[in-house]
């Protein structure tokens, strides 16, 4: 396909190319890949751990020396029992978080209980899918994981993307090095340890490089268990302890 012909299908996200592609959807997924962040979630029957790289966006780091890097995060609480891991364009990620919180709040107001994680992910996916049908809407360059200790299903991981697709996972990576992360998670699932946090952080270490390349300040780690279903974000000291455990094990 020539560049001129392809541009005809670039103008509106609602028009399929002869090859059956929505180019604007592909561009939004490409923008997520270019965010230079990778996140992942890993679970067993009793707990769930989430790890995501903590980086200040390159442009901000270069142009804004007064920026407080501690305010940069990819982990957000949607409800007391549901956490979101989002990567992509920062503003688009925040928009998806706010929409998720609004959906969760409306559900609680109408039903008097927290929304199940699978229903929340389905509603977010439905909103994303609508964006692919209207030319006046721009797709969100955001891919996310919703994680929760579900009352019925136990530890749960759900992934959504700009196309409106979503699914449940045993373990999942998203972001720039998604494929490398999923490959590492597959290996861990074949020979898991008794600590999901160690396994999840170990997977992230393998993605980044080696244990010597990773500092506690480079990672955000959150953990929830059946006994304590509210996600808690580990301190730098706690993350350093996990990194030390991995170094000694390896």
UniProtKB/TrEMBL annotation:
Q: Which residues form the Proteasome alpha-type subunits domain?
A: 9-31
Q: Molecular function terms in GO for this entry?
A: hydrolase activity
Query: Which key words tag this protein in UniProt?
Result: Cytoplasm, Hydrolase, Nucleus, Proteasome
Kindly list the places in or outside the cell where this protein is found, as annotated in its UniProt entry.
Answer: Cytoplasm; Nucleus
Gene Ontology, cellular component aspect:
cytoplasm; nucleus; proteasome core complex, alpha-subunit complex
Q: Report the main location listed first in the record.
A: cytoplasm
Q: Does the keyword Oxidoreductase apply?
A: no
User: One GO biological process from the UniProt record?
Assistant: ubiquitin-dependent protein catabolic process
State the Gene3D superfamilies in the record: Glutamine Phosphoribosylpyrophosphate, subunit 1, domain 1
List the SMART domains.
Proteasome_A_N
The UniProt entry's sequence similarity note says: Belongs to the peptidase T1A family.
- Subunit composition and interactions: The 26S proteasome consists of a 20S proteasome core and two 19S regulatory subunits.
> This chain belongs to which protein, by name?
Proteasome subunit alpha type
Q: Which organism is it from?
A: Babesia microti (strain RI)
